[in-house]
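Note to self: the last two entries modelled the partners one at a time, which told us nothing about the interface. This time every component goes in together.
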Amino acid sequence: MNPNVVSEEYLNLQKAIINKQDDLRERFQAVLNLNLSKNELNGEIPVLPQLKGSPVPGELYRESIKEIESVLSEQQPELREELSRLTANLTDEDILKWIKESVTYNTAYFQTFADKNELSAWLPHFLAEQALRPFMHLLAQACRPFINEFEVMGTCPCCGEPHRLGKIENKGRKFLYCPRCETEWKQRRLQCVHCGDDRHEHLFYITIKEDETAKLEVCETCNNYLKLVETKKLLEKKTAALLDLETIHLDFVAQEEGYGEGQ
Amino acid sequence: MGQYRMLVDVTKCIGCYSCRVACQMENDLPSDQSYISFCEVEKGEYPNVEWVMHRFSCLHCEDAVCEKVCPQNAISYSQTGAVVVDQEQCIGCEYCEKNCPFGRAKVELCQDKEGNSVSRANKCTLCNGKVLEGVTPACASTCYTKAIVFGESDEILQKAEQRLAEVKDRYPDANIYNPEGVGGTHTIYLLAHKPEEYDLESDAATPASAIIWKDYAQPLGKLLLGATTMAVIGGAISNRLFNKGEHHEGGE
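The predicted structure of the combined assembly is written out below.
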């Protein structure tokens, strides 16, 4: 039995967006030159907040918004009017503000923006975040040669997203996998990714009978959890964003069991 | 959904039996039953000895004899390429077991829904249910040495050719076992030696009798049945008309 709780329709929408983000990443790769030097970066802080300039040029971000909008309009025709109203009124100043606020994941800003422009509350932030992802992927690519040398506790060493997904690959090694920037980096198998506790008596797995490819790794010290996917059991290679979405049922289980931030 | 294949690379198999245990667990089989058997042969003379071994299960033929001979149409092809048995339809007649060119279909005692012991065809399903949900078969995900790999059909055939080229130096007789006589199979083997040394027939093929039975005799039989039925119906109508006429005449 497939334990996935996300509707087929929403999964297809996300897959279409992910495909578009891949296209955009390839397109922008040719024009965007992110030369990062490991020596200029502090290995204990995520790369993104250390950058001197923005890794997201305004013009390319506008192009990304347009492309994601076209996918949304195609998949959800009822949003077409609202989306075209939203993008038609975006000024250059708005674009720069959107880049800044989406990088810092400022939900409150986008909520206010939606209220002011009489838009659905979720739409501006959703569009802004999805349009940002190709740039995050490019940043992750630029960091790949040295990212395993970073020691950042609790967040993605590239974009600073909190940990929520990991994978156990063919040889049994554990990698953390960021759904926002697709960075993967090696992690000790027996260690909580949130607090660093490596006492085995404080770390447990929660498995779900219906799910044979993913499980929860929970820590009794910090009361937090990580979703772990055994990728060797999957027939196709999936992006972190898709794996994160397909394992939402594990978030429900973890939170019902009292794990997670604010629990 | 595309078609899938499994590659069993015997040059990597260490005979640990973990695939067999995983299969038993997956299919809830007792310890004395399994869809996977092992072939172990000692070759050569001391000090040049070799232990030839490999795991063996249903090969999932493209042109499966078991599917052709099953009188209940209980055996069919899945969209993944696996040859699967519908236990609800199977009557345990053993035709599949007796006709399988590889001796892989087995009729065994199973329990039906009411808990009664019944004879049913039992064989590897290539974990069809799991594959339909995008999950790798139990044996392939358990195999530590990666002697069993599973994936899209063409990709696996390419992988087999690539691996064959790699082992040719070490095993000059190495070959890919994918018998054309049964239209190719969805479980293919990279053998280090000739198929006969693993108790495999190099010229395994679908018997002509099965082809004649399934592809000609059955459709023809249905056609003839149609013709016979039409003749009976036609006869009944004309007879009735004839009798009616007689009755009418008699009535007068």
